[in-house]
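Could you join me in thinking about how sequence relates to backbone shape in a protein? Would you write everything just below, so we can both look at the same thing?
***
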Amino acid sequence: MGDLSLEPKRLPSPRRVVLPLEYPQGSVDPVVEVGETVREGQCIARDDNGILPDVRASIAGKVAAVKPWPGPFGRESRSVMIESNGAGGEPERLFEEGRTPGSPQEQLRLLSESGLRETDVYPWPLSVRIAQPALTPPVLFPFVPDLRRPIDHLILNGADRQPGVFLRKSVLHTMGDDILAGIPLIKALSGAARTVLTVSSRETLDETLERGLRMAGVEVVRLPDRYPVSLEPLLVQHVTGREIPQPGGDARSVGVAVLDVLTAAQVPGVLLKGRPHVEALLQISAPSQWINAFVRVREGTLLEDALEHISPAPRDPARVICRGPFLGHAMYDLRVPLIQQTEAVFFQTEADLTRFEDEPCINCGRCVQSCPMRLFPNELSRACEYGRFEEAEGNDLFRCIECGICSYVCPVRRPMVHLMRFGKNELSASREER
């Protein structure tokens, strides 16, 4: 791993940012026009239905374009580009200083309006997932009956999701006071009877943080140091013994709300100080070059611009992976914007690459033995490879959590996760056309 300093470095404000308007849960619509001058923290895009979080300008400047742009999920998405005007100015706030939001409904509204989004991909945004039924907009109930179920378990995940990524470890060691400030706010909104902080079995918590957790009534649960136990379906099962219905299930269907410690640490800034969320915390790594760094960047900073301020910078990259080595996507352009969902950027040299091969499956069964969701990745990937998408769906394709273990253990190096992602995308696209 090399010498890993857990303290994040704040990079200078960039000369431009690109802010995506499309996310896995849906898209939002711009409320600004090209040529318009915007303040830092100003809302530039909003969901007409009031469900998805707003997008906030992370710098002051002029709207230069609204157009498709390379995104961190491996595809282009409609985005707003803002060019800095070099002027700082007073950032826009969610409410006046000295006033705190009153009702729980107002607090949930502010979480949505703040632009705060989570590193993990969930079916619903934060303000919906952590709201107890009495605070959930009734309009959602006919479509999402799971939201009627009370939350009895609140899980704050402090265990990193994949090997080589230490973002949550950094948060635990550098943002403990913020986590403790966020816990009572989140508990009150969720109404959970039991609150748990999950950490790796090898994690050493600061004494002040441990004492604060005890005083807040938070139980610390240590997870096995085994990937992918900290991914939501497996995490919920380990902590509660409950199994999330698949495919398309959500932790809310079993009375659980899960959010990572980074989100918990960011909630007080929104609800107690009225600050719109305009930064992203992420890890930059080139393991073979002994480069590991945590950085804070303005949301939408382009990767190529951020690299100008990282020393030493990764050299001679042959592959760049956003969102981590197991769960991420390889990028085709260094102009990809760094956003709250980026989590980590990994650089690999030519010598680091493991190349996939166009080889037939030999039915060795290693992927079946290793699949944490008890699927048959060999059959699913083969069906997707040959266009038999309905067959793959019938065999629980959408239960796949894309953890990447099947590709990792495959002796003939078949691109199994890529094939299953391809199948999911094709099925989703065909439904949108109907």
